[in-house]
């Protein structure tokens, strides 16, 4: 089992997508089992025995496990699906490899861990001899991760080769035989797992010993935002909030840890003003908010850094200028009597570009053309410029390179120093541990009581994240 | 083969795309002309002469372009906000209905009062007609393509009912047509004795106003933001639904002005053939103009020119004037492809 290790944005997924034929390499070729693979042809990769389990699953929710697995394996003109044969094979495989899943269950009703098993079965069903797993543990609880690792070891014992993509050192150390470290699109090093250690790998990953942003002791200020027994409406398969209460103090970073899909999205949408509570109160600096909306949230001094900067944070086909004024175009600074002041808007964009060190051709450039890090800096500038008293930072560093991550962290700490109350939502536990003054765990739409910095061990947090002991914690 | 995003081209380069689209259109339609047994060059020359070869031809083209500018603007405004208004035809007819209801003697007022009143009333009617589908869309998620498209038929049948009933001209010898509007409700001719009327000037002014709205105002900014990414717009606090309502009002009002101008400036009364599909052609006009309001004027004149020119050509060359429909449709297709290439580059693997 080879581990492909690297920071977010190091090029791990890109490399694997080239291997699997999703992307076409500008140069170079892929060889598998001594054969050269045609570039850009996933079919050829599949036929050669390369299977890939993507970070975001590629399953049809409205079909059964069996149908999902057999999809595309039988000829287009075959009269009907050979259900019995497919079923037998699936059951045999799931028994052999400890991948328990009911072939007749609808995929929509499965848990995340089960879906991942379906994805792995799908690859095995196609006789994969090389299995690529892209960040397979990002969506799993610690217990599910353990189960996955056991399965993977079983598969390797059967003669399969596995490429395991991760940015988590402990996982890489736990399961791999060999580690390849990528750094900004280059191979930074290759080690035999048994002969290396976390420290060496970390150094290879980030290039040099990066100093984590220094976190000075916090000076808690007044209560800025209180959520009192808030519930939200259930939407689709998402997790809603059920009578949760949360207090954010000025001058503190509150970290929200949790496995993704446990209500983080609903909580972030609520604080951002996108979601309206079905019951409970939102209290901003002592005043109960009525008519909750994005505008109300902004007016209450809440800055929002959304999780998805492409779909939600920016309007890709509009210019940098048009994007940075999006939250405040109605203020006298940027418009009067229904007419926009483009001069002031452009000046503001230039100010943010300079202050936040954004690399972009001009304020008129479409924001889609910027890199993720620069886009995030613009969003950060837009959010932090009005000196907000509350900051909602939802996955603020996801997919950014090390330099940009450090930059975002420094900016958040600066805002904390000014007395802003910050809610940091992150799936990266190390980020939460590094920055947070208090940590709250979210699981199945419920919040744990807060713990001060260093009060709970990683193991205890992991238990809470898995939903154990939420009531008594 | 795949598409890669690329930076917006410079204005001069951007203008080359529509020109390339027109050249391609001519190339494609040449084949059809050849199939009809005529020489492409003489046919295109005759179309050109029929559309712009004389003062008469040019004025006729501009007259025909007038309703197309209005419906083109209506569509351009709506499509900017991704409100798919396919119902400009219905809004045009409603504008015509209001014009004959108020303009045939109900309001005995002088021109300088009567014409603005009719205009405002017509716009309001068109606006309200599109507001219905917009409300259904924002409240219940009903697809406005379906509702606006079907409203076209409903409104046309409604007009037919009116023309057989309450609005029927008692002096019309039984034809389904309304009475003529009174002289005070008529738009003056720009050149005495010619058909071109002040509706054309109004259309040009409207295009300029719409351009200002889109470019300089808060509303235009909101409409573009909502059109490009409603989710991000909502997140930033832009009231998406309210913006869509305003867009609907503006779009419906503009389309209704087309009906007002046709009745008040050209035909004088309302008939069932007031519009030979100006509402639908407005979609073509807007797309050819890449939704740019000033571009709408140019593309409306282009499309009108092809129709007028093809009519003249078919009389002398014997090639059916349906070639005009083919030309316009082909121009639309090539233009859509050209627009794609202003934003993406093609990459062969």
How would you explain this protein's 3D organization?
The complex is a heterodimer of chains A (473) and B (349). Chain A has 473 residues and is α/β, with parallel strands linked by helices. Chain A has 2 domains: 2-206, Rossmann fold (3-Layer(aba) Sandwich); 223-465, Rossmann fold. Chain A has 17 helices and 21 strands. Chain A starts with a strand and ends in an 8-residue tail after the last helix. The model of chain A has no long low-confidence stretch (mean pLDDT 85). With 349 residues, chain B is mostly helical. Chain B has a single domain (2-344), classed as ABC transporter involved in vitamin B12 uptake, BtuC (Orthogonal Bundle), CATH 1.10.3470. In chain B, strands 1-2 form a two-stranded antiparallel sheet. In chain B, helix 2 packs across helix 12 (293-317) and helix 7 runs antiparallel to helix 10. The longest helix of chain B has 30 residues, at 111-140. Chain B is globular. In chain B, 50% of the residues are buried. The mean pLDDT of chain B is 91. Chains A and B meet through helix 10, helix 11 and strand 16 of A and helix 8 and helix 9 of B.
Low-confidence stretches of chain B: none
- Summed up, the domain count of chain A is 2
Largest sheet of chain B: 2 strands, antiparallel
How far do the termini of chain B sit from each other? 6 Å
Residue fraction in strands of chain A: 15-25%
Q: What string, H for helix and E for strand, traces the elements of chain B in order? A: EHHHHHHHHHHHHHE
Low-confidence stretches of chain A: none
User: What's the pLDDT, averaged over the residues of chain A?
Assistant: 85
Give me the number of helical elements of chain B: 13
Cα separation of the termini of chain A? 38 Å
CATH class of chain B: Mainly Alpha
Counted beta strands of chain A: 21
Number of helices of chain A: 17
The CATH architecture of the largest domain in chain A can be named as: 3-Layer(aba) Sandwich
User: What is the number of E strands of chain B?
Assistant: 2
Tell me what portion of residues of chain B adopts beta-strand conformation.
under 5%
Strand order of the largest sheet of chain B: 1-2
The biggest chain-chain interface is: A-B, 36 and 22 residues
Radius of gyration of chain B: 21 Å
């Amino acid at each position: 089992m080879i581990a492909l290790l690297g920071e977010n944005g190091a090029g791990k997924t890109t490399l694997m997508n080239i291997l699997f034929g999703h992307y076409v390499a500008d140069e170079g070729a892929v060889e598998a089992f001594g054969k050269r693979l045609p570039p850009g042809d996933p079919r050829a990769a599949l036929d050669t025995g390369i299977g890939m389990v993507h970070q975001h699953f590629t399953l049809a929710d409205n079909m059964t496990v069996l149908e999902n697995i057999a999809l595309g394996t039988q000829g287009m003109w075959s009269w009907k699906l050979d259900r019995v044969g497919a079923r037998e094979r699936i059951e045999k495989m799931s028994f052999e490899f400890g991948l328990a899943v009911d072939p007749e269950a609808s995929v929509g009703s499965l848990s995340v861990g089960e879906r991942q098993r379906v994805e792995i079965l799908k690859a095995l069903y196609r006789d994969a001899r090389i299995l690529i797993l892209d960040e397979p543990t990002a969506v799993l609880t610690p217990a599910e991760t353990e189960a996955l690792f056991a399965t993977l070891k079983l598969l390797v014992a059967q003669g399969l080769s596995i490429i395991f993509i991760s940015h988590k050192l402990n996982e890489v150390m736990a399961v791999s035989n060999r580690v390849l470290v990528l750094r900004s699109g280059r191979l930074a090093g290759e080690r035999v797992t048994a002969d290396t250690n976390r420290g060496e790998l970390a150094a290879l990953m980030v290039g040099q010993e990066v100093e984590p942003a220094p976190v000075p002791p916090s000076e808690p200020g007044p209560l800025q935002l209180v959520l009192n027994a808030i519930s939200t409406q259930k939407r689709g398969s998402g997790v809603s909030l059920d009578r949760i209460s949360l207090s954010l103090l000025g001058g503190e970073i509150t970290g929200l840890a949790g496995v993704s899909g446990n209500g983080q999205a609903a909580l972030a949408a609520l604080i951002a003003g996108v979601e309206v509570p079905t019951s409970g109160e939102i209290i901003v600096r002592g005043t109960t908010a009525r008519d909750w909306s994005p505008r109300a949230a902004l007016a209450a001094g809440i800055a929002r850094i959304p999780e998805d900067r492409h779909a939600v944070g920016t309007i890709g086909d509009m210019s940098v200028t048009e994007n940075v004024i999006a939250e405040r175009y109605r203020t006298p600074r940027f418009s009067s009597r229904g007419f926009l002041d483009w001069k002031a808007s452009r000046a503001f964009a230039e100010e943010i570009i300079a202050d936040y060190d954004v690399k972009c051709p001009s304020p008129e450039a479409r924001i889609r053309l910027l890199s993720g890090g620069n886009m995030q800096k613009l969003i950060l500038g837009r959010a932090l410029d009005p000196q907000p008293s509350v900051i909602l930072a939802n996955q603020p560093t996801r997919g950014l390179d090390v330099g940009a991550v450090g930059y975002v962290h420094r900016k958040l700490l600066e805002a904390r120093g000014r007395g802003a109350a910050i809610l940091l939502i992150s799936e990266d536990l190390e980020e939460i541990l590094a920055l947070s003054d208090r940590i709250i765990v979210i699981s199945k739409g419920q919040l744990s009581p807060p713990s001060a910095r260093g009060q709970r061990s990683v193991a205890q947090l992991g238990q809470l994240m898995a939903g154990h002991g939420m009531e008594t914690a | 083969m795949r598409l890669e995003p690329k930076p917006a081209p410079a204005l001069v380069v951007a203008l080359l795309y529509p020109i390339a689209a027109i050249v391609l259109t001519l190339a494609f339609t040449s084949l059809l002309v050849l199939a009809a047994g005529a020489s492409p060059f003489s046919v295109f020359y005759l179309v050109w002469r029929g559309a712009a070869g004389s003062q008469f031809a040019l004025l006729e083209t501009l007259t025909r372009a007038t309703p197309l500018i209005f419906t083109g603007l209506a569509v351009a405004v709506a499509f900017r906000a991704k409100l798919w208004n396919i119902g400009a035809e219905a809004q045009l007819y409603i504008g015509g209905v209001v014009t004959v209801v108020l303009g045939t003697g109900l309001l005995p007022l002088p021109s300088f009062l009567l014409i603005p009143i009719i205009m405002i009333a017509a716009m309001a009617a068109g606006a309200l007609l599109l507001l219905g589908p917009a409300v259904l869309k924002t409240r219940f998620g009903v697809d406005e393509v379906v509702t606006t498209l079907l409203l076209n038929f409903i409104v046309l049948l409604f007009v037919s009912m009116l023309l057989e009933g309450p609005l029927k001209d008692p002096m019309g010898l039984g034809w389904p047509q309304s009475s003529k509007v009174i002289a005070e409700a008529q738009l003056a001719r720009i050149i005495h004795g010619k058909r071109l009327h002040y509706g054309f000037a109004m259309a040009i002014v409207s295009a300029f106003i719409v351009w200002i709205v889109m470019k300089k105002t808060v509303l235009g900014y909101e409409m573009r933001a909502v059109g490009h990414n409603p989710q991000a717009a909502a997140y930033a606090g832009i009231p998406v639904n309210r913006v869509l309502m305003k867009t609907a009002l503006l779009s419906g009002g503009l389309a209704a002005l087309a009906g007002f101008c046709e009745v008040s400036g050209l035909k004088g009364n309302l008939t069932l053939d007031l519009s030979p599909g100006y509402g639908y052609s407005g979609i073509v006009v807007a797309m050819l103009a890449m939704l740019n309001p000033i571009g709408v004027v140019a593309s409306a004149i282009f499309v009108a020119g092809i129709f007028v020119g093809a009519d003249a050509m078919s009389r002398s060359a014997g090639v059916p004037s349906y070639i005009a429909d083919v030309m316009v449709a082909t121009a639309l297709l090539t233009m859509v492809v050209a627009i794609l290439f202003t934003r993406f580059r093609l990459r062969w693997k």
